[in-house]
Sequence to fold (234 residues):
Amino acid sequence: DYDYVYICFNNTIMGTHYEYIPDTGNIPLVADISSCVLSEPIDVSKFGLLFAGAQKNLAPAGVTLVIIREDLITETPLAGTPTMLSYKTHADNGSMYNTPPCYTIYVLDKVLHWIEKNGGAEGMYKRNKEKADYLYDFLDSSDFYHATTEKGSRSLMNVPFLTKYSTGASDEASLAKEKEINDKFVKEAAAAGLVNLKGHRLVGGMRASIYNAMTLDGVKALVEFMKKFAAENA
Fold:
């Protein structure tokens, strides 16, 4: 009886990712692919609607990519739907109903050409898998760090991780030690040129976002720093 099923294909906060496309039968499947768009091939025919903010893998914030099945572009949207929130408005006007964000679209064009030049979605997947495997393999073999997500649900884009001091204990001393070591990691990482590694408050610890633009060398630099930090703080 559902009108649609909605999923977030890649969860940046938790570092989780769908490694399969859920089968929802005749019910349209809607997915937010903002943080994994063009990081891997995806069968768009399995979805009723896909949308992606450009700010993760495509361009600066300000433009949104939408892939929608034509039969879902309805003549009569839900009563009270504002004109700007009707997909038909934009489909009928070639996405030019309002003034488009020209600079962001220009950057998007540059990024799409770079992706195409580097093997398209397949090329990005190969690149991203190599980076993610390198980091996850290190985390799985470490006595000091551990990944927060289970194998089979791990994001290629966002890798949250905790130290051995993140025990889940709620006593004041343990929480203070955990905060101390996390703050120290983030501060020393930034000094080493590795920035934005503080984890989301819902997970804690650290989080490495390794989107398409991140290189394997960048991931290797992070792992080398993590080894050094563990040796000095174990």
